[in-house]
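Hello,

Our lab assistant flagged a job as stuck in the queue for most of the afternoon. It eventually completed. Since we weren't sure the result was trustworthy after the delay, we are filing this so someone can double-check. Below is the sequence as submitted and the structure that was eventually returned. Let us know if re-running is recommended.
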Amino acid sequence: MTVETIPAVKARTHFGEIMKKSYKKGFRFVVEKSGIPMVVILNAQDYNRIVEAREERFKILDCVRSKLPNFSEDMVLRDVSRAVTAVRKRHA
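-- returned structure --
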């Protein structure tokens, strides 16, 4: 997989060519404006793979979360605060 960084002006003026390279050859482009990476251009197949992988990771997290006891956010924050305070006392 080839990744090419290009300025926004080039992306705008050569967009058709960039789309063909991305679609046919799997190129990915990081588009910069004033030297700052702003967007990435990649083909739809790569994008779908990334989205599917992300969804699979979240399914795993949801499965793990469903097995954990249900604690309120306030209870968790209180326990975390107590733990942080205890660690700070030990290291003081």
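-- support follow-up --
The delay was a queue issue, not a problem with the job. The result is valid. The chain has a mean pLDDT of 93. Residues 12 and 33 are 11 Å apart (CA to CA).
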